[in-house]
Structures are given as structure tokens and as C-alpha cells.
Amino acid sequence: MRRLPPLSALPAFESAARLGSVTAAGAELGRTHGAISKQIAHLSEDLGGGLFEKAGNGLKLTSRGERLRNASTALLDDLSALAQVLRSEQDERRIDILTSATFATRWLIPRLPRFYRRRPDVDLRLRMSGPQPVPDHDFDVLVSYDRLRALTTDMDGQIIGDTSYGIVCAPGYPLREVGQLWTAPVAFVQAGAPQSWQMWMRLADIEFRAEQEVEHAHHLLALEAAAAGLGVALAERRLVDQDLATGRLVAPLGFRTVPGGLLVVVTPRASKRSTVAALIDWLREEAL
After folding, report:
1. CATH number at residue 85
2. What values do phi and psi take at 202, rounded to 5?
3. Which of 108, 187, 218, 237 has the most CB atoms around it within 10 Å of its CB?
4. Is 30 left (phi over 0), alpha (psi -120 to 50) or beta?
5. What is the mean pLDDT, run by run of 10 residues, along the chain of 288 residues?
6. How far apart are CA 38 and CA 45, in angstroms?
């Protein structure tokens, strides 16, 4: 059975030995002077003392301390290098995807089994986007589809497909044409994107007016409300394909396309990962 010294004290000892100061070691490790001194004293007691001696205002290693410093420095360097390799391997496998809850629920998640059959070694984690921006260091890949917030974007992204937008509602819902104007009793507006209807009218060259606008916090809720016959909603076609196929929703005015509207943006921390490139290739295939 191995009888090891208190390993948690080795970083404090190695730092103090290398820097020649308990205070400097505390600053490097983010610990107080007292905490570093206590760890060194505990280590010294366990090993029979005699690791440091006073040298003016600093510390000097004894011959016993020098031997321990050589061994501990090599050990900590090896552990640090191994930890970096293991973390990079884990980082390579794990991809954090930022996208909207509606896109994830309606389109991305149902397709993920196909991705995992191709790449069972990759661990995809989904993070939902919201009104507050998410810093780059918190995700790897952003998947963006909502061009009705702005028909053009300044995002430095890779195009993986086109997007198409149209009005959807339950069969029989009273969406009517009056002269050159389309009308409906209720239109759902997504919180944070009041301009979406204006953007769609501009894109489709159609005039539309609702007697009442009802705001929903999430696009998914608007689509469900439309399917329940409570009003009309705007939708990107991928998000409602299944509902259109089953007749749960209809799109009386069809869809208008924004070329290159489906984008992925890769953050700097993930830009060189082969697994991210594989994910983007797969997304591009699925988006066809």
C-alpha cells in the first residue's frame, strides 16, 4: 500500500519553492499567505521536516526540499500536460449548440438520431437562445434561421440552406382577401420581434392586417395556438412541415424564400475542431 504525502499540499510547496516566497505562491495560486503556510507546514511535518530554511526575507530550499521540488515539479508538469490533453479530447467530442427552442424542438432534435448513428463519438449539447446575448465562450455553434427579424444579417456565418416563410393557420380559419388586403381576426406576434410581420409583407409583396395582435413569448406557443384555431402565425417552413403534411396547419398564401437564410456561426474556441466541421456538413445535408 502506498504511503503518499498530502498531495493537495504539493502545488503550494512547488510554487513557494519555485518563487522563493510564500506570499508570491499565495498570489499565484489565489490563496492567502496563511493557507499556503499551513499546507507547507503540513507537508513538512508529514515528511519529517527540513524542507525550507530562512534566507533573508525569503525562503531557501534545503537539500531535502530540493529533492522534493524536483520530483513535485516533474509530477505537476506531467499532470498538467495530461489534463490539457484530456480536456482537449473532451472538448473535441462535445459541441455546445446555441439555437432557438422552436428550431431545436421542431427540426433539430428529431434529426439527431441520424447524426449520432454517423458520429456516436460526439456529444451534442443544446442551449436555448433568448433575448439576452450569449457570450462566445459559452457555446461552440450558433444555428440561426429567423431572417424575419432582419432580411439581411451581419453575422459572419456559413450558409447551410435557404429559408422560407409564410402564414400558417388551422384549416378553415378565416384568413380572407378583401380587395388587395389580406385580413384575419388574430395574428400572433413574437415577443422581441414585432417587425416580423412587416418583414414578411415586404418579402412576399402582400398587404396583411389583423383585427388583433397577440404577443407570445415563444414562437413555439404561437404555432401551437395557430394549430388550435386561435389565430394566424408566421413560420419558417421547416418548423411546420409535419403539421402541413398531416393537415394540422395550412399555408394558404404559400411560402417566400430567403436564399442562404439558414446559417451556422462557429465561435473562435471551436473553429478548428474536426467534429464541428462534421456537424456542419451533416446540417447542410439535412437542410436540403
Report:
1. 1.10.10.10
2. -65, -45
3. 187
4. left
5. 86 90 90 92 89 83 92 89 67 88 95 97 91 80 86 71 97 94 95 88 95 92 97 97 97 95 91 93 96
6. 10
Q: Residue 163 belongs to what H/E stretch? A: strand 158-168
How far apart CA 44 and CA 187 sit, in angstroms, is 75
Closest Cα to residue 64, out of 39, 37, 38, 46? 46
CATH number at residue 108: 3.40.190.10
Amino acid at 150: A
Q: Kindly list the distances between the CA atom of residue 145 and the CA atoms of 172, 216, 277, in Å, as whole numbers in the listed order.
A: 28, 18, 19
Q: Coil, helix or strand for 205?
A: coil
Residues 153 and 211 both lie in one domain = no
Burial 249-263 (b: 16+ CB within 10 A, else e): bbbebebbebeebbb
Residue 249 and residue 172 share a domain: yes
Nearest to 257 by CA among 197, 204, 205, 207: 204
Q: Which grid cell is 145?
A: 434561421
Q: And the C-alpha cell for 164?
A: 422560407
244: left (phi over 0), alpha (psi -120 to 50) or beta: alpha
CA dist 60 and 18 (Å) reads 10
